[in-house]
């Protein structure tokens, strides 16, 4: 239940932000998620509906924006965008890589009233 705990975290952040901003209702939550986290957006949507019931975010739209995976190769030094589960450098094939983006998960912005 990877998505469920992830969505719970997102919801907590959104609710806190809306409360701090004096909002009554959350209309939409925009989330940025790294492609490496391998979540299924439609499933996240279901989790969000479930968890947001009876909260300020009930009925809000969850918008998932995916951040592509990029790596830097420690052997040849080239930065590349890669498929989500690729763990070697597409240029030289080295597995000595550093992931630059792709593991993110954060609330980018909220629409509330
Ligand atoms: Zn390389």
Mind explaining what this structure looks like?
The chain has 113 residues and is of the alpha+beta class. It has a domain at 2-68 and 102-112: hypothetical protein PF0899 fold. It is 27% helix and 34% strand. It is built from 2 helices and 6 strands. The protein has a 3-stranded mixed sheet with strand order 2-1-6, covered by helices on one side. A 3-stranded antiparallel sheet has the order 4-3-5, with no helix packed on it. A hairpin with a 5-residue loop joins strand 3 (69-73) and strand 4 (79-82). Helix 1 crosses helix 2. The longest helix has 19 residues, at 2-20. It starts with a helix and ends with a strand. The structure holds zinc ion (ZN). The site of zinc ion has 8 residues, from loops.
Secondary-structure element series? HEHEEEEE
Percent helix, as a range, is: 25-40%
The ligands found in this model are: zinc ion
- Stated plainly, the CATH topology of the domain at 2-68 and 102-112 is called hypothetical protein PF0899 fold
CATH architectural type of the domain at 2-68 and 102-112: 2-Layer Sandwich
Taken from the alpha-carbon principal axes, the silhouette is elongated
Largest sheet: 3 strands, mixed
Distance between the termini: 31 Å
* Average pLDDT: 93
Low-confidence stretches: none
Largest beta sheet: strand ordering: 2-1-6
> So how many helices?
2
Query: Which structural category do the helix and sheet elements fall into?
Result: alpha+beta
As a whole number of angstroms, the C-alpha radius of gyration is 17 Å
